[in-house]
Write a structure and sequence with these properties.
The chain is α+β, with helices and mostly antiparallel strands. It is built from five helices and eight strands. Strand 6 (128-130) and strand 7 (133-135) form a beta hairpin. This is CCHC-type domain-containing protein. One of its GO terms (molecular function) is nucleic acid binding. InterPro entries: Znf_CCHC_sf.
């Protein structure tokens, strides 16, 4: 890790790295929300024996809101393909409902869908027919994070840390058992008085911006 740090410092006097972690494989996972730092890290690949591999872009995501709860993922996919032939969808993989989100136990739910770049440009904010309703898909952006300990350098399934409370940001208990529920929440990332991963968190907002740029570049053409 020292050689990586020295290589970065040779180019950028004051790099901004959110986290750096040595993985069991010996690789180093580096997360930075600073554009200049990311640029420098990319450019040191091949120097001093270092090889930099950037996480590949994933498919763009959209959210469809207020979908009848009885609509299955398969039904949504088939409906979009059959009822919106102007989209010229070539494969079922071009439209893939992944999971439900938003409030639970309602007659309607929200869905997050992965779509191909071409379909993303064609479907975004456009009237899309799904079964007995129409919808206007919106961009869906979130950054990878751990829902167990709230860290930003790994995802939940790889977590070996203690559970962290979503309300007070202290380790060792879940939010439903928090003794500080009558107090204002605390963000585990910036320490301010708001919930972790709130839109008011500057660190989380930076992560979302970076993810949005990676997933939704200005043009896919």
């Amino acid at each position: 890790m020292d050689s990586l740090w020295k290589s970065i410092k040779l180019v950028l006097a004051n790099p901004r790295v959110d986290s750096a972690k040595k993985l069991p494989s010996g690789d180093i996972l580096v997360i930075s929300t600073d554009t200049e730092t990311v640029k420098v890290i990319k450019n040191i690949s091949g120097k001093d024996g270092l090889e930099v591999l950037e996480e590949g872009n994933k498919k763009p995501k959209v959210k469809i809101k207020n979908i009848p709860s009885e609509y299955s993922a398969e039904f949504i996919t088939n409906s979009i393909i059959e009822q919106n032939q102007n989209l010229e969808i070539e494969s079922m993989n071009d439209v893939k409902p992944v999971y439900k989100c938003g409030p639970r136990n309602r007659d309607v739910v929200d869905w997050m869908m992965e779509v191909s770049p071409t379909i993303y440009n064609a479907i975004l904010n456009k009237c899309t027919f799904i079964g007995l309703m129409s919808n206007f898909p919106r961009p869906y952006v979130t950054a990878s994070h751990c829902r167990r300990c709230l860290a930003l350098d790994h995802i939940t399934k790889n977590c070996t840390n203690d559970l962290t409370c979503h309300h007070c940001a202290e380790a060792g208990h879940e939010s439903s058992k928090c003794q500080r529920k009558n107090e204002e929440p605390v963000c585990s990332h910036c320490g301010d008085r708001h919930r972790t991963m709130s839109k008011d968190c500057r660190i989380w907002a930076q992560r979302i911006q970076i993810t949005d740029r990676n997933l939704h570049p200005p043009s896919y053409e």
